[in-house]
Amino acid sequence: MWLAAAAPSLARRLLFLGPPPPPLLLLLSRSSRRHRRLHSLGLAAMPEKRPFERLPADVSPINYSLCLKPDLLDFTFEGKLEAAAQVRQATNQIVMNCADIDIITASYAPDGDEEIHATGFNYQNEDEKVTLSFPSTLQTGTGTLKIDFVGELNDKMKGFYRSKYTTPSGEVRYAAVTQFEATDARRAFPCWDEPAIKATFDISLVVPKDRVALSNMNVIDRKPYPDDENVVEVKFARTPVMSTYLVAFVVGEYDFVETRSKDGVCVRVYTPVGKAEQGKFALEVAAKTLPFYKEYFNVPYPLPKIDLIAIADFAAGAMENWGLVTYRETALLIDPKNSCSSSRQWVALVVGHELAHQWFGNLVTMEWWTHLWLNEGFASWIEYLCVDHCFPEYDIWTQFVSADYTRAQELDALDNSHPIEVSVGHPSEVDEIFDAISYSKGASVIRMLHDYIGDQDFKKGMNMYLTKYQQKNAATEDLWESLENASGKPIAAVMNTWTKQMGFPLIYVEAEQVEDDRLLRLSQRKFCASGPYVGEDCPQWMVPITISTSEDPNQAKLKILMDKTEMSVVLKNVKPEQWVKLNLGTVGFYRTQYSSAMLESLLPGIRDLSLPPVDRLGLQNDLFSLARAGIISTVEVLKVMEAFVNEPNYTVWSDLSCNLGILSTLLSHTDFYEEIQEFVKDVFSPIGERLGWDPKPGEGHLDALLRGLVLGKLGKAGHKATLEEARRRFKDHVEGKQILSADLRSPVYLTVLKHGDGTTLDIMLKLHKQADMQEEKNRIERVLGATLSPELIQKVLTFALSEEVRPQDTVSVIGGVAGGSKHGRKAAWKFVKDNWEELYNRYQGGFLISRLIKLSVEGFAVDKMAGEVKDADLLKRRHRPQARGGWCPCLQRGAVGARRLHFSYLVGDGAQPFPNRSPNAAPPLAGDVPSCPAQCPAQCPLRRGASQLSGAPTPNSSASSPGPPSLSTSSGPANRTGPESSLRPTLLPAPSQSERKAFTRPVQSAATSRLPHPASLPMANPCSRPANPGLEARERMSSGRPFNADRLANEGFRVATAATNRRGARCRRGEVRPEYPSAFLPPFLSLPPASRRSLTASLLSPSATRAPAALGAAPGVPPPPPEEQLPPPPAAD
Predict the structure, then answer these.
(1) Nearest to 1097 by CA among 1025, 1016, 1001
(2) Is beta strand 219-225 parallel, antiparallel or unpaired with respect to 228-236?
(3) Count of domains in the chain?
(4) Are residues 853 and 951 in the same domain?
(5) Do both 99 and 237 map to the same domain?
(6) What CATH number does the domain containing 382 carry?
(7) d(CA 807, CA 776)
(8) Are 1109 and 1119 in contact (CB under 8 A)?
(9) Does the residue 863 lie in any domain?
(10) How many Cα atoms are found within 13 Å in the side-chain-facing hemisphere of 1116?
(11) pLDDT confidence of 306, banded at 50, 70, 90?
(12) Quick check: is 678 catalytic?
């Protein structure tokens, strides 16, 4: 299954509730049905949680003979089930899965014996089970279980549900469709709904004769229904042995296009009526993909046909039902005139993903949901292999690093991530693991494993695995065994370190030239988004490492398996002027931190493009992540970015854009935000001028993607020329003078909305209503959040829940608002809180609710908002675990984002802010810093601040010197003593005009400073670092001492005010707060914008000294000397 969460943006709309069910449904099992209804809405009292138990093994199915009759007007269905079953142990009851279904009658007939009618149906609603009780014991042997039942075609996009569509004549109608993964087949018919309990299926559908009926297998009979001449019964061929979650059926109105693969398999793509042409691209991809997989696995596709169908209302991106793959319209349909290049690529990837599942997941299925990653991780990797085969011009593997690899690392670096193999008990927990760990990290470690083994041995092992376990179930260990037998390498030992423990390593490397050889010293440590890992029992990985040099950047000079915490390797015949890089191709799932000299040596490879694109991408992504974790300086990263000024590769620019967007989000609540926007314009203007607005002869797929990215980034940042041209083209588009090309619509829409007014928004909403293609509607929905006016933001949020937006697309509209601006984040969060019950009930706790939470809160970088989000945990406590599971990573993202803007001001880059924190402890709230220990030196800024407030002298002040004004808090007077008040807020008066002028003078070299180099400061106690670079600078100016330029650069202009409360010391962000007078702003943010830009420019200029490397990142590695400098960056075009 391809999740909607995998798409950067997808959106949703409210469905009409159908008429009430007929009286029959209300009479049957009324009390139990009403309890289940209330339970599903979160309104019934939750029973005490019981340990979950899987279905008993005393009875199991052999074959299901299932007949369903959906009513597309009343939104109900009737069903008859005859299941051939095996009684393995004598019992008087049969336990099955059942949810939102009312059983009318049930009986069991042993082969050759009389039928035994069930005397009771006991529904266990929490476990979604039903126990059928029989008056006598069912003896071992085979027999037939018969069940008559009724159910409802729900509007929750799971189970057997209704999907709304509009006919070409404008009439609103409904289709009946299915979505059973992970545990929703039980909502369509009573069954043994576990992946390991496989059986064959004989399916029949009773449908209106003017409707198309589809299922997993081909139609073998279509005949009139006895009681109604307008209805027919469609019977399908028997399926192979398969799991219930792969069963599918669709009833609706569709056109189709078809072809046959070179293996003779019938391939069809079903589209909405009148849109058959839009299915041709997907048909072409599918026809190429089936033979590719057959050859790669050396196992034929086992079914006679494969159908791909576009569903109007669909929660996931697609679903791999065996022989009948269901898709969102945007994941299957391509209009040659109105679909952009990225949509074509998206369709190719999703088709490749789902068809890979026909072998890996359907033919061989995971034994239990703990091994879900076997399905999703493998398919998420091989889809890229397939697309690279079909469309080599896409440079798809470089895009994999940006789309999957880095996305997985972002989530896996959080303290509340989870291993790839995660224990799953209750069915409600399954949706929690449909995330970037199962999909993207799973794909990334498979890619690393493939590279470690080699393609031939990998294919050999896959064939052994699929052949041995076809039509059966397997676990992760079974795959390792097959690959180990094929390659002769210790696959299980290596891969268990990647699948059974969460996280991944940071590899620190330094180099030393020894005659004609290069000595590399490597060490590994767990990488954490919250800062350097400090636990005593640090996890360890067996890391396949590849090393390349400038002699041949595309080939590994050395491959090693790092199976210990530290090791040294020697590269033979490497000249001093040659650069050395780890992780060739960015294949290994780890981050790399280079010593300063090694990093500096890589810059020419970035500038002259001799470093391959995927390696340039991986390098800059590692640097941004290290800076966000407080391990290196942000200034150091921005300086390295100067080397990318001539970068031509789309994917590298895409990742740079994403990282700058994160930085902009974190700074959006500060005055520094405008400076970042100016930096964005400076960085993207040269490439924007080279590309222009219109395609040039000889350009291809990646050029179109890059143009849209760059123009959108410049337009959003307010680049004047881009804004003017976007407005002109938008006006011509609306007036019909010159229709925008599909590749330019998103950046133009985004730009005009970002800098537009209510009239612009009204025009966009009109275009949305007029759009006939779902891709265009989604394109507009994704950019609506760019509007800045609070009134217009609220209008967009209201629109998100209107009937104009499909239910699966509401989430991305709200997410777009949350990601559009700081005002949008607050408004979206309030909207989610105010409409939580409606949103939760709409999505019933599935992965869409997790995505909604993630998009709503992940951009918060203010401790107040992070705390509010944490407090809002009360909103979801009674809801299913999907919501709770999706909430926790988002809480840490917000806390980490805010903490990056807080504690690093105090402790400085490379320091460990929480030296005593348990490695498994929850991350502290934004702004938390450790209290000053008793042995803290007197010059500690926190202690100094407390002394100033209490009137005590400090080494840098005399007793007669006037200190900052005191501030009373709820804890008592500022001079109160005792353990709760040993630290009080340090309030900084606004700098004088002369100080402002002095602060913007060109900084002096560290070599002229009489202060020690910051790397020489002790790192054991974070309080040993100066707390506030702004205060430090002002003190030096007032005492006549020069700046320490390295120190100031290393802090990245970061300033803060030391503050505390009764729980200990806290570091406050330097911005205006209602409770703080403006006179107490930190100096840097008190400067006029022009002065701050002047300081920024001076530090980023070629003459500015380099920020030192990360401090304390690797034991025993000496800091670089302060005189080391980066070479000047090339001049911009």
Answers:
(1) 1001
(2) antiparallel
(3) 4
(4) no
(5) yes
(6) 1.10.390.10
(7) 16
(8) yes
(9) yes
(10) 7
(11) very high
(12) no
Q: Which of 191, 224, 253 lies at the terminal end of a domain, its last residue?
A: 253
Tell me the three state secondary structure of residue 621.
helix
Residue 871 shares a structural domain with residue 955: no
Q: Are the beta carbons of 653 and 687 closer than 8 angstroms? A: yes
Q: What is the DSSP string of 202-267?
A: EEEEEEETTSEEEESS-EEEEEEETTEEEEEEEEEPPP-SB-GGG--EEEE--EEEEEE-TT--EE
- What residue spans of 835-877 are helical by DSSP H? 836-843, 847-857, 863-871
| Domain region containing 411 | 360-499
SS3 (DSSP) at 1065: strand
* Single pTM value for the model: 0.76
> What are the distances in angstroms from CA 1119 to CA 95, 528, 595, 915, 1009?
66, 22, 9, 20, 17
Give me the amino acid identity at 823. Answer: H
944/886 same-domain check: no
Q: At what angle do helices 742-754 and 758-770 cross, to 10 degrees?
A: 150
Which of residues 976 and 620 earns the better pLDDT score? Answer: 620
In 3D, which of 401, 382, 435 has the Cα closest to residue 589? 401
Q: The tokens of 1129 are what?
A: 């960056």
1082 lies in some domain: yes
Q: Give CA–CA dist 1095/1003, Å, rounded.
A: 9
- How open is the CA angle 896-901-905, to the nearest 5 degrees? 120
Closest CA to 619 of 597, 593, 645: 593
Q: Name the token pair of 109.
A: 């007939």
Instruction: Supply 1's token pair.
Output: 């299954």
User: Quick one: tokens of 786?
Assistant: 């760019």
Residue 150, exposed/middle/buried by CB under 10 A (0-12, 13-18, 19+)?
A: buried
User: Which of these, 273, 252, 310, lies nearest to 168 by C-alpha position?
Assistant: 273
* pLDDT for the residue numbered 42: 31
The residues facing 79 across adjacent strands are 68, 149
- Identity of the amino acid at 136: S
Q: Residue 78 belongs to a domain with what CATH number?
A: 2.60.40.1730
- Token look-up 């011009």 returns 393
Q: Is residue 733 part of a domain?
A: no
Distance CA 331, CA 469 (A): 31
Q: What is the pLDDT of residues 510-532, one digit of tens each?
A: 999 999 999 999 999 999 998 88
* Nearest alpha carbon to residue 443 among 116, 273, 451, 567: 451
Provide CB contacts within 8 A for 579, sequence distance 6+: 549, 550, 598, 601, 602, 604, 605, 611
d(CA 199, CA 60): 9
- Tell me which of 441, 469, 499 is where a domain ends: 499
What are the CA-CA distances from residue 690 to residues 208, 677, 711, 756, 1076 (Å)? 58, 20, 11, 27, 47
The CB density around residue 554, as the number of other CB atoms within 10 Å, is 11
pLDDT digits (tens, 9 = 90+) for 457-502: 999 999 999 999 999 999 999 999 999 999 999 999 999 999 999 9
Peptide bond connecting 182 to the previous residue in cis, omega within 30 degrees of 0: yes
853 and 947 assigned to the same domain: no
User: What is the edge-to-edge ordering of all strands in the sheet holding 129-138?
Assistant: 91-97, 129-138, 120-124
User: 1051 falls in which pLDDT band (50, 70, 90)?
Assistant: very low
- Same domain, yes or no: 1042 and 965: yes
DSSP annotation of 75 reads T
For the chain, the helix, strand and coil percentages under 3-state DSSP, each to the nearest 5: 40, 20, 40
Same domain, 941 and 843: no
Residue 1094 has pLDDT above 60, yes or no: no
Which residue is catalytic, options 181, 320, 329, 354? Answer: 354
**How far apart are the C-alpha atoms of 1057 and 957, rounded to whole Å?**
18
How is residue 4 written in tokens?
């909607």
Query: Is residue 27 within 8 Å of residue 104, measured between CB atoms?
Result: no
Residue 415 falls within a domain, yes or no?
yes
CA separation for the pair 235, 239 (Å, rounded): 12
Reference 217, options 248, 189, 190; nearest CA is 248
Within this chain, do residues 87 and 130 fall inside the same structural domain, yes or no? yes
